[in-house]
# Entry
Amino acid sequence: AVPICSTNAINIDNQWRMRLQACFVLFFFSCWGDTILQVNISMTDPPFQTRFHPLPPTSIWGPLKGPYPTGAFFTNVYLSDPMRIIFPYPYHAKILDRGLELGYPTRVATKTAVLSGIAQDWTMTAAEPLMDFSIMNYDSMSLTGRWKNLQGGTMVSSIVRGSPYMTMTYLSLTPILTTVRAIVSVNEMGSRGTITGNRFLITFNDNTEWLLFVLEGKQITLNINSNSLSCLSRFSGTLRLARVPTIPNSIAALDQASQTVPIGADLDWLQVDANRIVTRITWKILGNLGDPSQLMMMALPHHLDSLVSGNERVLAGGYLCIKGRMTALLGPVWKLEEKLTPINWSSSQPIRPDKVPAILAALTQDRNKRNLAADPYGAGKMLAAMARLALIADELAQTETALTLRDHLKQDLNVWLDGSNPNPFRYDTTWGGITSQNGLNDRGADYGNGWYNDHHYHYGYFIYAAAVLGKQDKAWLTQRREILLHMVRDYASPAQRDAHYPFARHKDWYDGHSWASGLFTFGDAKNQESTSEAVNAYYAIHLLGLALNDAALSNWGRILLATEIRSVQRYWHIYPDSDIYESAFASNGVVGVLWASKVDYTTFFGNNAEYIHGIQMIPFTPITEELLPPAWVQVHSKVPGVSKDGIADGWRGFLLSARAINNPDQAWTEVATLTDYDPGNTK
# Structure
């Protein structure tokens, strides 16, 4: 049994190590009476043939070893020099050979997209030549890296999610801050000359203001030019930059919190009762600097919706990012409460008696459905559809049909789990994960599976199917337990120090939702399209936990599920009075693809409205009741294009399933006219 822990192993030099306040603390699920709950995830070696990945990690990782976080918010940093841009919010950060570029993005909304404009407000660098950036440490909320000088000088920065400051610690280097803006004044002094101090108010020619702080009571002397601030001598200490929001009392609030520096965060989960859990974020603070109670971190709207820790709120709405207005919270601990789903195998609403005969007839037609796909995504969808039929047969007491479906399901699942199919699973020892053989051979094959795209989509379907099979076939489940838990660990390992897989590969614990993209670089950083398939992946873990009689695993799935649904309903589902998106875009009713710095009303496979809306709904299972609230379905139904003529039956079937949430009789009548079904769907 491996505890859920929350701090990565860190390899850093002695000077920096001495400044860390928190080291190697293990956190666990806590239950009533402070009982420690552990998730029973075996640490056996992966039961797959091993392969090396054709894309090796570069020297940017320094001494840090795998498994590596292929779904992390900072993927761009370690994959590509030109694209080393990330969006920790409220700023963007770009890793350069010579230092750190940062800026406060602008925002533009159109009918089809909301975009973040990149503003190169500052570059924090040094007068001395610097060697390239290397990663020192990372966790779910941060990335810490270092630039070195051949003479022993260093610059170290912890980029922490939600920090309104960008921070750089210098050791025996001469700081230079450059900007593409024009500096109008520094402490009202003008744009030429020298100035000494430890706090500087800088005004640009567009009237925006920034504060520069020097910590630990130190002072520096700066030479002011129209596009730069240059220190006159070598310096060892910490500098912080913060953009001043255009709301009252911003400067006073930033002054008050300026001395307390975050460097990362630990996560743990506190169980309130059977159906409520608190995610506790404990921010790690640099050294003994500042007062922990004055730590200022920016919260997104979904954080405020679930916050129960009573943190003082300041700078409300002062910063804007792609997920809306942010609010600062003071204090080193956030507690976010989630209600865990009570939904298990079946819907909370039983099948209507008057529909049973037609459903039985359809079940008889569909009972021989088999997997025909050779890729893990297509196969997963078909296997899950077979499993859904088996559960319907269970609910209708169709024992023989359920046995037939599970027998077929067992045969088709075993082919993949045994590796006897033409495209078997392999364990990639380079990055740490399970991939398809075709995916490893071709980065474009299997939807990028070999480059770690969409593993939660692909393997979530497999786990759903396996849970349904194992619900009744305990002998099979016992035999396959280890390999199934390896698949869970691949996309959602609960163990921070898992030797074979990264912690919760796709989950972004700051944004609340998952990122689907893997080892691919994009100018807008990470992205996710199909939120409903992410929800399905975590629902599947919950069901597997039930099948295994493992309450801890079930709860882990429910935590992942609850946080995913909260963020999906906040950032993908759009209402006319949206406080996230401008009205021009909000009229679409849904986001097609959400990126770290933009949202699009499209999909990766087309611009049709049925694609954009339908991909946020599939597959339809009992958990759909929580994912798609009736109020949002009503909004969706009024969007032009989703009810037009000529929609292919495969997609129309999904849209009609959504319509059934508010208009079941009308949807039932129209479903009867379908003659074709998506491979992941059935009559």
User: Anything to note?
Assistant: DSSP finds 18 helices and 32 strands in the chain.
